[in-house]
Specification:
54 strands, Immunoglobulin-like, 4-stranded mixed beta sheet, 5-stranded mixed beta sheet, 7 helices, mainly beta, 795 residues, 7 domains
Length: 795
């Protein structure tokens, strides 16, 4: 009978002809066909002769592991090669296809073949278990539904489950529903109230039936146990419980214990306490309810400022089936503790204020709050440290921070104002808040030099354009107010601008020319430092430039008179004796100090044994008397050399002509005396002339110094100099260095001469004195050792 039904279905659903759509062939066959079952005629569908199948190497190409289809090359028939179980290949898919390709050569052709596998009702509905248990309370009201286990049928379409049925009874019915995917589900419906005392167990058969031809079905047994009813719900002692707890209560603190009773027995009287579902998660984090004994304890951090009262809805559920519930409410109030420090909110009007801001200027507004209540929320506020600011209370817990002093950016450019606020709790809590106030600059400071007077020592013959000194003026102001520009003031008193220039940015002073000590010994300039503020401020300083001498002048021989570096001297033989002064070489040097200290040296001589030269005096004296063997003309080459570094020198050639004396011996003494007196008078005249010239020169210098002092007394400091007169005891050794070093110097007077001290040294013996040119005292000492005298004569 089954084979006949399958053959009938085969002939009903078999499509003998195929449709060619875009080069694709489609066939339909039912599942479960035996080997060799006809599917279609490939040769006809491809319009090929049978003999072409072999000639063109006809073949099937499939991705399936099993070769479900095959082609008979003798007749071109496509037939079933393997028995097909649709449920294994496609599971419960509504459509199921076997796809493969046909390949031909000469010429090459490829065709897609699709065979649709049609479902047949070859599977019955089955349940996962043959028996199911169900417990229903006797108190369950009619109309209650109880989901039932669904059966499974791997067939699809009309061959799958279409309905459920239960065995007849008076208490239960069944309700079948269709899901969105088309499958069926069943629910057991209580149609009549249960009474456990009449019947405690029901045995019901559940049958699942499909719509296939023929119909198939499957069954399962349902054992329903009627449970004793929980007739009494729990009842709490109070409908509302009230409790008070401190907000700083530690975790685990007992708030209260609730209790409910149940008149039932057994499990129906065993209660479980819990919060009802709508109690927020926040409350569940703060409080914990013991489900067994009903104790409510603190388990989180309570905060009076967030909420000072909590309502906890609790329930007691018995262990009956179904469980019954009793409800109650617990109100927990918190007592405030001083657990919040004051909050300080600073709203600054500006973070920067000028240093000339007026007294009372509002710097910021301050709001102080405390979340605590009562005395715990009463707040006081003050400024810490000594700053030129104060707090003014404007209204309750509101303050104004105002300027209460003088701002000076150069002293303090940034104020970190610390404000302290504390409450009235016990112990009090406090808060500190800082406010940074920046002071902006105004041009209230002039540039300031490190000194009002600078002494600059400069060696003569300097390189023009080289830096000789640098002045620095500091301005504590900021930005443009502190940007210093240097300049040299030009006026009638300070002549510096003619000689030097200054870098306006860094204060470097540069020489415009090379200085000559012999022409200019010192000069002053007035330097101004001016800032770029508005209005600009400035200050001045005096720079006193002192030119130092350099050995740049060679000695000049002034006596005896020379012609082309040569001089001629006549001597009488009879007057020459050992130590006889034949002549004296006098040289001058424009330099000063050690550079002008001269010494003499005999370089060449016709007869070295006849004459000797004084090293310091330059005197040429005979070392012996002349004889008849001495030649008539003697030639000497002398060198005058200074003491500078390096030393400079000049030479002179002196020729001595010996004149024969025909006078009698008796007259020798008279002539010698006359010649000696003549030489003495000549020296005296020479000393008088040189002394007068020096005196007039000294008077001129004193007059010029006094005149300039009167002009400069309100502008620069005055300097004092001292003119000293020194005596030397031995006129014949006036140029002797050792003798001069041992003689005391006697100061005879002072004179104002632009900060220098000069010495004029004269011998009291006018007939034998030598005039020394005007020179600074102690020329071998460095200028740093020179004392500068103020107008009162103090060093």
């Amino acid at each position: 009978m089954a084979n006949e039904l399958m053959s009938g279905a085969y002939f009903i659903f078999l499509l003998c002809a195929s449709d060619l759509v875009s080069g694709q062939f489609r066939y339909s066959i039912p599942e479960e066909l035996e080997h060799g079952a006809f599917v279609g005629n490939i040769a006809e569908d491809l319009r090929l002769n049978v003999w072409e199948l072999s000639a063109r190497k006809f073949r099937l190409i499939s991705d399936e592991r099993k070769q479900y289809m095959a082609v008979n090359l003798e007749n071109g028939i496509l037939f079933v090669n393997e028995k097909i179980d649709r449920e294994q290949i496609c599971y419960q898919s509504y459509t199921c296809f076997l796809s493969f390709q046909i390949a031909l050569d000469n010429p090459s052709e490829m065709h897609d073949i699709g065979v649709e596998i049609l479902d047949v009702n070859d599977n019955s509905p089955t349940f996962t278990k043959s028996e199911f248990a169900l417990q229903i309370s006797e108190l369950t009201a009619p109309g209650a539904r109880f989901p039932l286990e669904s059966a499974r049928d791997p067939d699809v379409g009309t061959n799958t489950i279409s309905s459920y049925q239960i065995s007849p009874n008076e208490h239960f019915g069944i309700k079948v529903q269709t899901r969105s995917d088309g499958s069926k589900s069943a629910e057991l419906l209580l149609e009549k109230s249960l009474d456990r005392e009449q019947q405690s167990v029901f045995h019901i058969v559940l049958t699942a039936t499909d719509a296939g031809i023929p119909h198939r079905f499957g069954t399962a047994r349902i054992i329903i146990t009627v449970m004793d009813g929980n007739d009494n719900a729990p009842v709490f002692e109070h409908e509302i419980y009230r409790a008070t707890v401190a907000e700083n209560a530690p975790k685990g603190t007992l708030v209260m214990q609730i209790n409910a009773t149940d008149l039932d027995d057994g499990n129906n009287a065993e209660l479980t306490y819990s919060f009802i579902n709508h109690v927020s998660q926040k409350i569940r984090e703060l409080f914990k309810l013991d489900p067994e004994n009903g104790e409510i304890r603190v388990q989180g951090v309570l905060n009076f400022e967030e909420s000072n009262i909590y309502e906890l809805d609790v329930q007691g559920v018995d262990n009956g089936t179904p469980g019954l519930t009793g409800h109650a409410k617990v109100i927990v109030r918190l007592t405030d503790m001083n657990d919040n420090a004051p909050l300080v909110d600073i709203k600054s009007a500006s973070s920067t204020f000028p240093e000339n801001a007026q007294h009372g200027t509002v710097i910021a507004t301050i709001s102080v709050t405390d979340l605590d209540s009562g005395r715990n929320g009463e707040v006081q506020c003050r400024i810490l440290a000594d700053v030129p600011f104060k707090l003014q209370k404007s209204m309750r817990n509101n303050y104004k921070l105002v300027l209460n002093g003088i701002l000076d950016r150069e002293t303090t450019a940034l104020y970190n104002i610390s404000i302290s606020a504390w409450d009235g709790g016990s112990p009090p809590l406090s808060t500190r808040k800082s406010l940074l106030v920046s002071v902006s600059d105004i041009n209230d400071n002039a540039p300031k030099f490190s000194k009002s007077l600078y002494n600059v020592y400069l060696m003569e013959n300097n390189t023009p354009g080289a830096s000789i000194f640098a002045v620095t003026a500091l301005d504590p102001d900021n930005d443009q107010n502190g940007a210093v520009v240097y300049s040299i003031l030009d006026n009638q008193i300070y002549e510096g601008p003619r000689y030097v220039t200054i870098n306006a940015k860094n204060g470097n002073i540069y020489a415009l020319r090379s200085f000559d000590y012999e022409q200019l010994k010192h000069f002053q300039l007035k330097v101004q430092a001016k800032d770029a503020g508005s209005p600009p401020l400035s200050s001045t300083a005096i720079v006193n430039v002192i030119i130092l001498d350099q050995n740049d002048n060679a000695p000049v021989i002034v006596s005896p008179l020379m012609w082309n570096r040569s001089a001629l001297v006549e001597i009488v033989p009879l007057s020459v004796y050992p130590g006889y002064l034949v002549t004296k070489v006098i040289a001058t040097d424009a330099d000063s100090g050690q550079n002008a200290r001269l010494s003499y040296q005999l370089l060449e001589a016709t007869d070295p044994s006849l004459f000797a030269v004084g090293i310091l005096s330059g005197e040429i004296r005979a070392t012996r008397s002349l004889t008849d063997q001495d030649i008539i003309t003697e030639r000497l080459v002398l060198c005058a050399k200074d003491n500078g570094q390096p030393s400079l020198s000049s030479t002179v050639t002196i020729s001595f002509t010996i004149v024969t004396n025909f006078t009698e011996k008796s007259s020798e003494g008279t002539e010698e005396q006359i010649q000696s007196e003549y030489v003495f008078d000549l020296n005296r005249y020479l000393i008088i002339i040189l002394g007068s010239t020096s005196f007039l020169f000294l008077v001129t210098i004193i007059f010029l110094v006094v005149l300039k002092y009167k002009q400069d007394r309100n502008i620069a400091e005055d300097y004092s100099s001292t003119v000293c007169c020194c005596r030397r005891k031995n006129s014949s050794n006036v140029f002797n260095q050792r003798a001069a070093a041992n003689e005391p110097l006697n100061c005879t007077g002072t004179v104002q001469n632009e900060g220098y001290r000069y010495t004029v040294c004269l011998s009291p013996e006018s007939s034998k004195s030598d005039f020394l040119f005007l020179k600074p005292c102690h020329p071998t000492l460095p200028f740093n050792d020179l004392g500068v005298l103020d107008p009162n004569g103090r060093k």
